[in-house]
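$ run holo --ligand "flavin-adenine dinucleotide" --emit tokens
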Amino acid sequence: MFDVVVIGGGPGGYVAAIRAAQLGLKTALAEKADLGGVCLNRGCIPTKSLLHAAAMMRNIKDAEALGIHAGQVRLDFNKVMAHKESQVKTLTGGVRYLLGKNGVTLYRGEAEILSPDTVAVDDQKISCRHIIIAVGSSPVKPGIPGMENPAVMTSDEALSLAELPKSMGIIGGGVIGIEMALIFQSFGCATSIVEMEDRIAPLMDKEISGGLEALLKKQGIRIYTGSKVEAIEKGRILCKTGADSLQLPAKKVLAAVGRASNGLKLSLDRAGIAHEKGIIKTDACLRTNIPNIYAIGDVNGKYMLAHVASAEGLRAAENIAEAGRPMDYSAVPQCIYTEPEAAAVGLTETEAAEKGYTLKVSRIPVSANGRSLTEGCTQGFIKIVAEKTGRILGVHILAPHASELITQCVSAIRFRATARELNEIIYPHPSVSELIMEAAHGISGKPIHI
Ligand code: FAD
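-- output --
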């Protein structure tokens, strides 16, 4: 009899299993495919590996301006992909090692919930006191004529292409569409993004969307917002943008329009678990309607982010071992790994205004930051949205290393800090983090370097 069976070994499930075992619970983890889930195998890590290679290519080309002559830059696409794969293997091997080291029993196979205290993995029945469902999500393809064309792929296939296509049409200008566009355009594939909303990255602050669009266009990526793909044909996609019809070259078409919960494949109804289209309903403590069953990560539909899945995994395991504590989503960071990077936490300016706050907003351009300048970046900004007391409500950054800078802002929002408190600490010089200091000074109307 196990105390906990975790179903799914992605960043939600494997973290939950390790923490449950650390807390003295007899724990099993069932995984039907690769440990590490989407994040390590077909998501966060492979995209960042390819983005790093893409940035290196651009930087080598740009080095000429610094007086560094690197000669002709040539891409060996297969080698780049193999390197990415070896990084994935290193990390998934690390997950396997950590599970073993913490005494988690691993079942390789497809799990099913037979009842609230029995999980089956292939032919084996496992009795347990608690279940944590962490089965994640899969990419969806929109119902557009021509979607059955073999040139159409999801992010899964895009990350394992055998050769670099000459052109790519990307349907969807969200985080995945944007990162893929930057990767493939940098490698030499002519890339277009078609987005139905009136801006790319539509969930981010409007100014971040605008900044991202400008920097992607500067890389040569064609972007059509407020536009709709109407059909996919051999070698091209047909779109409507306003009253105009467009044909965009697309030897490959990437559908990056969203993801669907894997919950439906789990026979949730048989176990009596409440869900909507496979998205499992949970309370604030991550319990489903069945008190000993928890659901974490993409499958509960709250956020589709690896770090949220892991945070929920920790909380679910702790709630099983100890008294239940609710999840705190007050400060969830979101990043897009462009160059410079985009990162945000808290309310956008529009959301804060809609909530009725009297706002103070401070913006500092990256061009005012010495460290960014030395790294060759003058594009971007930081924007702090605060309420009239100076309490920080949201921070939006388009700057070098924004995914690192945002953590300080996460702390500020989580611990309800004011701009003044952010300015009571000393920032290293020269550093990109001085942008946070300047923007916080800006809330009191007294920035120094602007
Ligand atoms: P998953 O990672 O989907 O893992 C679920 C696991 O469950 C899988 O391994 C699956 O095989 C297994 N499973 C499913 N059903 C069963 C079953 N019946 N029995 C046994 N095992 C089963 N997020 C970020 O935070 N940062 C990023 O930079 C980022 N980049 C991304 C880039 C791309 C291209 C994509 C597609 C996603 C990206 N994400 C990113 C999102 C992130 O990958 C997911 O939010 C995260 O992986 C969700 O974790 P999870 O544990 O809920 O599920």
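-- notes --
The longest strand covers residues 124-133.
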